[in-house]
Specification:
185 residues, alpha/beta
């Protein structure tokens, strides 16, 4: 018997979609792919806070231990509640040089691609040699910017709103060990 866990946040019900074991499998697959692609390079992982911090922690520990890499953080926002504002706000700008570096943006979820589109342009303008994207989740049918399609994806998802594993609802539910989808009425 499969028991579906569910939670309620601000009157919305969410049902478990990806279990911790499924997430671990997806993270390992992404880490293995990155480890192969960057075997003889020194990538700089740029983690998009706040949402990607859980994925980034698991990902950086799962990449090959011989991979010589660095990690840094940037904080941007384009969401309020369950909807995008359409505008990217830089809350904590990049503090590290990316000139002549291979960069991997680590994101929790890519849907419209606005954040990634703007970040990639920003990093290229700063002189990054290459810019790739690793995202735990990807909503391909929501993508509006072709250049924002992630290079490494843990799991594809349709249009549902999700929480847990770093993903939030107005700042809450990031601490859940699984990923939950909004329950359809």
């Amino acid at each position: 018997m499969i028991i579906m866990r569910s939670i309620t946040e601000q009157g919305h019900t969410f049902e478990e979609w990806l279990t911790p074991d499924m997430i671990a499998r997806d993270v390992k697959q992404v880490a293995d792919h990155i480890s192969r692609d960057y075997k003889d390079k020194e990538p700089l992982f740029i983690v998009v806070l706040n949402g990607a911090f859980v994925f980034a922690a698991d990902l950086i520990r799962a990449v090959d231990k011989d991979l010589h890499c660095e990690i840094t953080f940037i904080r941007v926002s384009s969401y309020w509640g369950m909807a995008t504002t359409g505008k990217l706000e830089f809350i904590v700008p990049l503090q590290q040089t990316v000139t002549d570096r291979d960069v991997i943006i680590v994101e929790d979820i890519v849907d419209s691609g606005l954040t990634i589109h703007q970040l990639k342009a920003h990093l290229r303008a700063l002189g990054a040699s290459s810019v790739k994207v690793a995202s735990m989740l990807f909503k391909p049918e929501k993508l509006e910017y072709d250049d924002a399609k992630p290079d490494y994806v843990g799991h594809e998802i349709t249009g549902e709103f999700v929480v847990g594993y770093g993903l939030d609802f107005d700042g809450f539910e990031r601490n859940l060990d699984a990923i939950y989808k909004a329950k359809k009425s």
